[in-house]
Amino acid sequence: MTSSTKTLRVLVVDDHELTRCTLKLALSLQSCIGNVVVADNGKEAIAQVCRHEPDVVVMDLHMPIMDGWDASRAIKNQYPHIKIVAYSAADGGKTRAIANGAVIDAFCEKGACTKSLLEAIKSVA
């Protein structure tokens, strides 16, 4: 990606409305991000991926209906080029998330600052 030619499309997936809305707003203000859509569970995330084909998915791992582990596997199975950043308070970070079955490209702790999440998104894009 070159900053002058392409802006990223991002999907934020989290079951907490405040987290979804806050991340959507914060990411929408970034010049490198052109479009942010949201989903509140893994099943909805898969539908949004089919509809919008984002460049990066920011995925909570603990959600009802379908969690981030199952959703990440389903998305990567059908869209291997889409990058997934797990955004979670799950213990153990990326190594444990992968060991538990998540198919992710990066991991960002929910307690991290917005800048850390943005860096994770840029690093996988």
What does this molecule look like?
The chain has 5 helices and 5 strands, in the order βαβαβαβαβα. The chain has 125 residues and is of the alpha/beta class. It has one domain: Rossmann fold. The chain has a 5-stranded parallel beta sheet with strand order 2-1-3-4-5, with helices on both faces. Helix 2 (42-52) packs parallel to helix 3. The longest helix has 12 residues, at 17-28. The protein is globular.
Summarize the structure.
The chain is α/β, with parallel strands linked by helices and 125 residues long.
Question: What does the secondary structure layout of this molecule look like, with pairings?
Answer:
Layout: E1 8-13, H1 17-28, E2 33-39, H2 42-52, E3 56-59, H3 68-78, E4 83-88, H4 93-99, E5 106-109, H5 114-124
Parallel strand pairs: 1-2, 1-3, 3-4, 4-5
Helix pairs in contact: 2-3
What is the string of helix and strand elements? EHEHEHEHEH
Count of DSSP helices?
5
Strand tally, please? 5
Largest sheet data: 5 strands, parallel
In CATH, the architecture is 3-Layer(aba) Sandwich
State the strand order across the main sheet. Answer: 2-1-3-4-5
The whole-number mean of residue pLDDT values reads: 90
CATH C-level name: Alpha Beta
In terms of DSSP E residues, the strand content is 15-25%
Approximate shape: globular
End-to-end C-alpha gap: 7 Å
Structural domain count: 1
Rg calc: 13 Å
Q: Which structural class best describes the helix and strand composition?
A: alpha/beta
